[in-house]
Amino acid sequence: MDRPDFSPPAHDAGMTPRFDVSNVPLQGAYVARECPVRAQNDAMLEALPFTVDAFTQRLFDRGNAFEAEIVAELLRLHPGTVMVEGGGGDAEAATLAAMAAGAPVILNGRLADPAGRRIGKPDLLVATATGGYHAVDVKWHGALSAAREADAKGTPALVATLAFPDRASAAVDEAMTTRRHEVDVLQLAHYQRLIEAAGFAAPDGRHGGIIGTERCVVWHDLDAPLWRTPSVSETTKLRSAMERYDFEFDFRLDIVAVARQHAADGETPLLVVPVRCGECAACPWNAHCSPILETPPGDVSLLPRIGWTQWKVHRDRGVRNRADLAALDMRTAQMVAAKVDVAALIAAVADVNADTSLMDVTELSPAQVAQYRGHSLTSVGDVRSLDAATAAYSGLGMTALPEQIDQARAALGDAPAYRRRGVGRLVVPRADVEVDIDMENVEDGCYLWGCLVSRGGLAPEYVPFVTWEVLSPPVESAHSLAFWKWLMGQRAEAHAAGRTFRAYCWHAPAENGFLRRLGLACGIVAEIDDFIVSDEWVDMLRVWDSQLITGHGSGLKVVAPLVGFAWDVDDAGGGESMVMYDRAAGGDADAREWLLSYNRGDVMATRAIRDWMDTTNVTPIESA
Q: Which domains does the chain have, with CATH numbers?
């Protein structure tokens, strides 16, 4: 059965609700941050049974405990702080009264904007010296990154202490950059609109702060164009948090209004349909949406790196599942990816004899003819061999179209993995001494560096560097430094013996981030950077992705089973490991053993993948 289209309005148009939203219940900040299909389902369907898993519950509990600690610290530092009690209209009135009185810090406030259909409870409202307020939210995650982790577009961190939390007291920390969590700034933008509606906007601009696990206020400029989004006038465009929020929030008001009407009459077409995204696994509607998406041959959004923008392009061209995508023509797709306007070329020769040379087609310029010759097109007959359905993607910036076609073919194929086009033989960097490394961390820092050492024909040896002490920067640095000295010792020993050395991980940015934290803490930044950029530090994810294609994700827990590897522990995953860590830090011996076994499995998995790539004759994707 055909489904209604997911068709948000043009982002460049200056989004405002297109439907009557006056009866939509007031919405919190979460609605702009979450999948629009969730907002639709919340508005029209009866909630499904849903049990919060242990990891998610842990996040709630730890987040609430952290927020309580920050609130207690703020009350200690600022005796004049106003703590708003209760809820509903009384809390709103108390918040407005405190703002009118110029309270320097307001905790647990509540603001409503009926005209904008908004409601919200900012953790802090911080007054400015010139009048008005900025919102600050408390988050149980890091708000800062080491400056060397960021690319050239990293935003220098503007940081204030809890003792002087206002933006005017903040200073730039040259060693750090602002960690960009989009959901955080969308929430701050929601609070900004509430403050403006209440008449207490600060005159120094739209800004909001995040108190992360660093226990300081990291300030964000909500009008800075930092977020790249789809555009009608361009392929993509940089937008501010405010622009991004206004679009997303108002679009969801439309979605909720239409969903409520659909629930009432059963006929009004819905605005959105399910699309796979990063929120699905933890969404209470996953059991509702997944059967729709996974019905064979499966929705195209199930493929790696196909987000909503690409999904919409495919859907607009009648490609509604992986089989449709797999059936597109690769040669035509490669020309589209090379930015050849194949659709215009096909139209230009539609009424020309097939034997005619392209040089003789008057509608084509010499430059165009030369471009087509580079793709082995010399006659009108050659053009007729191209696929019009695939050519319909011309001019849409779909440079990944050939990759997406191959991903669809791989997902529907029989082999666990296929060689990418142009890859004749799999190549894996090897060494006489190999160390597979996997780091385990929680919000407070890294507590385990697990290493699997392989020397020639000897049995691999698992060497863990772990601390069960309460994590703090000194504790983390001390145990990470012990790991680092050991690793460099293994490297030096191999070099001294005339042996080659390599260390391996899966998805190096995770390990690199904590290594650079160690470098900053211990004054060995250059030493660590030299190693990270050397060919002795190998990201096996990049080695795999550059040569192999599966049609599925490339996480270690996805790839390792494809090559026949299995963990010794049940429910192996990062979320479960964090739950186990809480028990282990409390002294639970079984939890400690579980974590070491889990980590041992991770490093053995990277080794198993490397060995599989070295010994397996993998089918080329052209044969899928």
A: 11-48+229-287 (no CATH), 54-226 (no CATH), 324-409 (no CATH), 433-623 (3.30.420)
